[in-house]
């Protein structure tokens, strides 16, 4: 089963813990210790693949500690959470995202932008289009308005980030495979070139050998050198493979 580490980031009070606990345990906790920084595990299936999620619910973003740097480094995907009732919480996310990109040293980091507390229509100070604008500024990072209270879009936001991690890993694997195949092809082309140059050598040697063989005092050591180099290595290969076959049978 694949292991995915997802980090939930955002200003204090935006609902990081509420979202996390709602996703993992399916319950809404009215008041949660704001200082608690904890990790949770949850197994889910995304697109037919089982994933073991480790979700880190972080606390406070005021200080940028070495610890924070460490878990951003180890995180594969990020939920960047603000509250639609708190303008500053969205501003704080801009710096946070910069920090994530800097630490990951990449522009392509699996992440979602989450505008939480969308049930609080009366207290809302940020509209959907404010979130959309930030998402566009970030290169169309998927954006969800959520309500941890009513579990609106909570699963969707987590699944989206997991899917992005999967896609990124698949792309990396495909690239590695492509590189391996390219190396293999280059190697076989190189071998082909070596073989054709050896055939040239052998042609000369075999002519000489035929001459020697025609003589009664054919020199064994000269004959030995006449064994085509490539067929010699082939023989060796056959020998070693039959030896290894023996070993396997035994
Ligand atoms: N109405 C409403 N309140 C929420 C929602 N999410 C969190 N809260 C409340 O906001 C406060 C802070 O939530 P918490 O999860 O502790 O925020 P954190 O500091 O980011 O982890 C708590 O009182 C929550 O009950 C939500 O979606 N809707
Ligand atoms: Mg919290």
UniProtKB/TrEMBL annotation:
Protein name per its UniProtKB record: Ras-related protein RSR1
Region described as Disordered: spans on this chain = 177-250
Ranges of compositional bias, category Low complexity: 186-198
UniProt KW keywords: GTP-binding, Nucleotide-binding
Keyword Protein transport part of the UniProt annotation: no
Q: Does the keyword GTP-binding apply?
A: yes
- InterPro entries the record matches: P-loop_NTPase, Small_GTP-bd, Small_GTPase, Small_GTPase_Ras-type
Source taxon at top rank:
Eukaryota
Q: Where is the composition biased (Polar residues)?
A: 199-230
Signal peptide residues are: none
